[in-house]
Write a structure and sequence with these properties.
52% helix; Helix-turn-helix domain-containing protein; HTH_animal
């Protein structure tokens, strides 16, 4: 179970939903999709709350403060990606097996 999926889905919903009503609708659609994919309800709630904590949102989202909070989230600085020199870096992926006799 990927724990970052509920977090990023709600984070993106805040970014692309221009009104509070659309956000609430999208949040419930996301919750339903996650429940249908066997994510536990408390797991979903935990990661939805993580979005608010990481974005430093202390008060609950409401019709009155949604626009301000959305702008704060959209204008927040993001981590700079580290450039990888693929000519010098080697990534090795392999299948785990209990012993080398069964290794393909």
């Amino acid at each position: 179970m990927k724990r970052n999926i509920p977090y990023i889905m709600l984070y993106r919903a805040i970014q692309y939903c221009s009104t509070f009503e659309l956000f609430i609708e999208e949040r419930e659609t996301i919750r339903t999709a996650l429940l249908l994919n066997k994510y536990p309800c408390n797991f979903i709630d935990k990661h939805f709350n993580r979005v608010l904590e990481k974005s430093k949102i202390a008060q609950p989202l409401t019709f009155l403060n949604y626009d301000t909070i959305r702008e704060d989230i959209m204008n927040a600085p993001t981590k700079e990606k580290i450039n990888i020199d693929y000519g010098k870096t080697l990534f090795v992926h392999f299948t785990y097996c209990s012993n080398m006799e069964t290794f393909p």
